[in-house]
Amino acid sequence: IWKKFARKDIKTKEDFEKDFVNHVETSLARSMYNCDNLAAYQASSLAIRDKLIIKWNQTQQTQTMLDQKRVYYMSFEFLMGRAMDNAMINTGLRTPIKESVSELGFSLEDLIEEEPDISIGNGGLGRLAACYLDSFATLNYAAWGYGIRYEYGIFSQKIVNGYQVEYPDYWLTYSNPWEIVRTEIQYPVDFYGYVEEVPVYEGATEKKKVWVGGERVLALAYDFPVPGYGADANVNNLRLWSARPTHEFDFAKFNSGEYQNSVEAQQRAESITAVLYPNDNFDAGKELRLKQQYFWVAASLHDIIRRFKKSKRPWREFPDQVAIQLNDTHPTLCIPELQRVLVDLEGLSWDEAWKIVVRTVGYTNHTVMQEALEKWPLTIFQKLLPRHLEIIYDINFYFLQSVSKKFPGDNNLMTSVSIIEESNPKQVKMANLAVIGSHYVNGVAALHSDLIKLTIFKDLVKVFGGDKFGNVTNGITPRRWLKQANPKLAELISSKLGGDEYLSDLNLLKNLEKYLEDKEFKSKWQEVKTFNKTRLSKLVKDLTGYEIDPTFLFDIQVKRIHEYKRQQMNIFGVIYRYLQLKSCSPEERKKFQPKVSIFAGKAAPGYYMAKRIIKLINNVSQVLNNDPETREYLQCVFIPDYNVSKAEIIIPASDISEHISTAGTEASGTSNMKFVLNAGLLIGTLDGATVEIAREIGEENVFLFGHLSENVDKVRASHLFDVKLPSSLETVFQAIDGDVFGDSHEFKPLLDSIRHHSDFYIVSDDFNSYLEAQRLIDETFKGDHDIWIRKCITSVANMGFFSSDRAVEEYAEMIWNIEPLSK
Ligand code: 26M
């Protein structure tokens, strides 16, 4: 009988309208007469969500029935951005819904603007996880994401007097239509306590160790449906954990009259998932963060194991049914936790268990930077996770035993590969644990994957051999980063390629090369760019008050602010250009290519230098935009609060974007891919995935400059006694020192890190080559514009490789050994 009542799919506009009105009147308890944009956004989302949930159920049922291997993508961060537009695009419902919404008296664009970003991530790593979820669903893989439902995402950034000010991002203010709370899925997670020896069974003389936890919280599941692209695609799941008190009172306290304290201690449970740590590529080593990590790992593994147990298979088949991918070292506790469950709770032998762990786990590394590598002081570990620390010691003991057999007497090697760093205080090196406890380690771009073998994992390569290490170059989803962010370009491409197929088979873009001589196509291409630049200009006006001119060259650098990403070099370049303009006659100025330098990005709240860079950019911006002599030729803006939805507006508007990290420091970069896919060219160093972009689209289409990664060490060494500034940079520093951009004291640390503190990021060495690349850009852009457009078209045509679909397929084949679901 239930089949009769099974809910119908949204197929027509009428279905949607009925659902919409129904949600306004029941779910939201509002009248249609009193339905504002926010309510309309919520009702639309609920209507779309209903559809996703039906598909989601079907997908989960199929996955359970087929009982194939599943992948669990463990990521501490997911930078999802907005969900509604994406859901409409992926389900193919955007056009009918747009019409419906407008018939109901709303504009779809306005409703989309009502949705807050889901910003529970810092930057590249979190956004990569979101792109991969899109590809998992689109390609039909049985793959889930597991993460934390932080109540506060990455802070929102305001600029006050040129300084970054952080505000909390409480993204759950107006209930969230995109999440489904799973009150039936709650697991206890323990912390602290002690390790006890107990008989292996009652009355036995043989003993085993067990952990007796001291503090317990509950992990409650929230599910986020992840729709694949295509009318009939799967809907996968992102499961995020939220911490709740157990409601088991401390009765000792309770009875002694400390009622308040007893309840308070319980309430503290919720602080575990309250806030995302706002650091990017920097490890602060805080106890609460380790607590977050264990909380999430324990809950996710519990869930995974419960699902596995339903199939009643023997434990040794676990790795044939389950693949766990560690997105960086943040979930490395999966390794000792799985070992603990198998040995302490399930009674497997150490060796049996360890084989299962290693076969199950894969590890992706995202950085070579020392200060980003996670290390936990033993003291914190011992207190919070006493049994896990013992297990780690045992893992290390057996591992080092095997090393010393293979390399007898090589103490340096032992020290370097050991999981425990014998420093003061002693620390657990999570990256070493991740390598030792997984069957495959990958970097995120070809250069980066080579570099980790030569640097941080050099000695582990000696031990395991090179075959355990490989590369999967990052990718981005063309659904969000082309169709959603740049509907005009997507439409133009569809009109030439005869449909939208390229969105799920990005190599088809290659066919665009046929239109290199097509004048009409090229002029439409230019129109799209101008449209996108105008769209961005409006946003800039709204957010900064500055008016920028869409006929200028748009030069954009948007990413987290970090010394290694060298926004400081960019702004020094802007200053240099300004000084040049100032020293010219009005006639000579006319020869300059008008340009606006656009910046955006957050600095970690405790990162002093990064905050100085933001202040300098804002001060420069104020001087330039108010200088009547030069502002027709050069402007500069800092867009506050960079996030995914702003990226969708900013990226399609670039003529040039900057990817200018010190060679060998940016693991991959993913915005470089987004910019090229959106018909902008790059200025960049040979770093991260930019190397492969140049390979794919042709070096002649990338403005490359700077020292190569293999020479960086040598260049650095030459700074030991003295840093020689080129006269170009000297001029820039003189202007800053001379208070041309406000109080120079504020920028002294920035300049001193270069001129007096050995210029670690080799700005002084790369500066002239950077200026030369900029000069070439001006010349090319100002010259025959047809050449510029041809470069852009050729570049887009050759971006197929950078689809996250390709990346995910490589993971599936090389690391997870899974195939898409057979339907
Ligand atoms: C670590 C410890 C404590 C607090 C925070 C962290 C932490 C958080 C995020 C460390 C690193 C984090 O992210 C690093 C990151 O985003 N890496 C970027 O990953 C991208 C995807 O692979 C690459 O494209 C970028 O090059 C790389 O910088």
Automatic annotation (TrEMBL):
Look at the named UniProt entry and state the broad enzyme category this protein falls under.
Answer: transferase
Among InterPro entries, the record links this protein to:
Glycg_phsphrylas (IPR011833), Glyco_trans_35 (IPR000811), Pyridoxal_P_attach_site (IPR035090)
What are the protein's UniProt keywords? Carbohydrate metabolism, Glycosyltransferase, Pyridoxal phosphate, Transferase
Q: Which GO terms describe its biological process?
A: glycogen catabolic process
Known cofactor(s): pyridoxal 5'-phosphate
* Protein's job: Allosteric enzyme that catalyzes the rate-limiting step in glycogen catabolism, the phosphorolytic cleavage of glycogen to produce glucose-1-phosphate, and plays a central role in maintaining cellular and organismal glucose homeostasis.
Entry protein name: Alpha-1,4 glucan phosphorylase
Species this protein is from: Saccharomycopsis crataegensis
Taxonomic lineage is:
Eukaryota, Fungi, Dikarya, Ascomycota, Saccharomycotina
